[in-house]
Specification:
235 residues; 38% helix; alpha/beta; Rossmann fold; 2 domains
Length: 235
């Protein structure tokens, strides 16, 4: 069973209800789907539709068996300036229903992985943008979800943090979690994604494996970047 299935006839905002149209896809357990497209193509609107943040949505979105948990890692850090890193973790754990040893073990593991142990009791407003982005990764992975929705995760991360993030994604996929990841870093996406959704002008112009994308644009040996350019310029 897919961890998420989306059949979106249209979705958008008040006054603009059809920013995206006919967006249909699913993410299977263990799959990493790259959501690719130029600025303004509809990637963020698609993600907001999945998260239930849009006032106008026609269609159906189903998460697994209806009880599946998902985690969202946004492009820009969303933090409370008067809370420490540890207080953010405690707040998130309370919302997720994580308690006691389970929370403590997972939090310690993630703080160690992203080298944030020594600053756990510091206010997050004092952190650099890169450190704040690491906090969003820690919060996103605090609860082991069935689906991770990740928006432009590489912005602000140093190479070691990117490596650790990708390794974490691999471990989560191995246990059966699915990932939907929006990114402009196409060379990395080509290397790590199992399939792609290419979005342009509010709709999906191609989907599937890299080979499927190549066939859609008639370029059998092309890179993802070359396919992306060919398909979006056609629009």
């Amino acid at each position: 069973m897919a961890v998420v299935t989306a059949h979106i006839e249209s979705a958008g905002y008040r006054g603009r209800p059809d920013v995206i149209q006919d967006v249909h896809f699913e993410v299977a357990p263990g799959e990493l789907v790259g959501l690719i497209g130029p600025n303004g193509a509809g990637k963020s609107t698609t993600i907001k539709a999945l998260l239930g943040l849009l006032p106008e949505v026609k269609g159906e979105i189903t998460f697994g068996d209806g009880k599946a948990h998902y985690a969202y890692i946004p492009e820009h850090p969303v933090l409370y300036e008067d809370l420490t890193l540890w207080e953010h973790l405690e707040l998130a754990a309370s919302a997720m229903g994580l308690k006691g040893d389970e929370f403590q073990q997972r939090a310690e593991e993630l703080l160690t992985l992203y080298r944030l142990t020594e600053v756990r009791h510091h206010l997050t407003s004092s952190f650099s943008k890169g450190m704040q982005q690491k906090i969003m990764l820690v919060l996103g992975f605090l609860h082991k979800a069935e689906l991770y929705i990740v928006d432009e995760p590489f912005i602000g991360l140093d190479p070691k943090a990117i490596r650790d993030f990708l390794a974490m994604l691999d471990r989560e996929r191995e246990r059966g979690a699915g990932v939907l990841m929006s990114t402009h870093v196409l060379d990395t996406a080509e290397r790590i994604c199992s399939s792609f959704l290419l979005v342009s002008d509010g709709g999906i112009v191609a989907s599937g494996t890299l080979q499927d994308i190549r066939e859609a644009c008639g370029l059998p040996e092309a890179t993802l970047f070359e396919c992306f350019t060919a398909l979006t310029e056609e629009e």
